[in-house]
Structure formats: C-alpha cells, structure tokens
Amino acid sequence: MADEFIKGLSIFTGAGLAWMVLAGWYRTPSFESEQQLVAPVELADSATMFDSLGVLLMDVFFWFAILGALTFWVLVPAVRRAGEALNERVG
Questions:
Q1: Which range marks the domain in which residue 11 is found?
Q2: What's the pTM?
Q3: Residue 77 CB burial class (10 angstroms; 0-12, 13-18, ≥19)
Q4: How would you write the chain as a 3-class SS string?
Q5: Which of 27, 28, 65, 87 has the fewest C-beta atoms lying within 10 Å of its C-beta?
Q6: Contact at 8 Å (CB) between 65 and 15?
Q7: Going residue by residue through the chain (91 aa), what tens digit of pLDDT does each one get?
Q8: Is 73:41 a contact under the CB 8 Å cutoff?
Q9: From CA 89, how far away is CA 23, in angstroms rounded?
C-alpha cells in the first residue's frame, strides 16, 4: 500500500508543480490581483504555437494530477480489496 501512496503523491506533486508554473504564466494577469492562478486565460493575437501548447498542457497537467492521484489512492486499493474478497469467497 505504501508504494501506491508514493506513486500517487509523486504524480500529484509533479503534475501539480507543472500546472502551477504554467498557471502562473498564463492565468495570472498581475501579482496585485486577487485572481492569481485562476483567472481566465487571455492570449493575445500574437500568441505563438508554444503559448497554445502551454495552455493545453496546463489543462492536461491539472487533470493528470487529479486522476492520477485518485487512481493510485482509491482505484488500485479498491480493486485489490475486491480481488482479495472475491478470492476468499471463491476459495
């Protein structure tokens, strides 16, 4: 169980850090505003392909952090417990 926890924590920490860096670049209009990291993305007309890729990766890292952590913290242990219960019932 400890290795599932550390895998989930590693995914959550790594992807969360990547999301925070990208959100700091693209979702923080100014550091005096109250909407740091959660403001809507405003790309200028001169946005490059890398800006579009950064915005896309920001959403990918967010969902990877959430779903990856939940997978290793909830789904994998639940499947193992269900398998153990099924083996006890059958055997």
A1: 2-42+51-90
A2: 0.82
A3: middle
A4: CHHHHHHHHHHHHHHHHHHHHHHHHHCCCCCCCCCCCCCCCCCCCCCCHHHHHHHHHHHHHHHHHHHHHHHHHHHHHHHHHHHHHHHHHHC
A5: 87
A6: yes
A7: 789 999 999 999 999 999 999 999 988 887 777 788 888 888 877 788 998 999 999 999 999 999 999 999 999 999 999 999 999 988 6
A8: no
A9: 49
Token pair listed for 85: 């219960």
| Distance in angstroms (rounded) separating the CA atoms of residues 50 and 64 | 20
Residue in the block written with tokens 């403001």: 39
Token code pair at residue 60: 């990918």
The answer to whether the beta carbons of residues 27 and 40 sit under 8 Å apart is: yes
Cα-based distances in Å from 45 to 48, 49, 51, 59, 60: 9, 12, 11, 21, 23
Total structural domains within the chain: 1
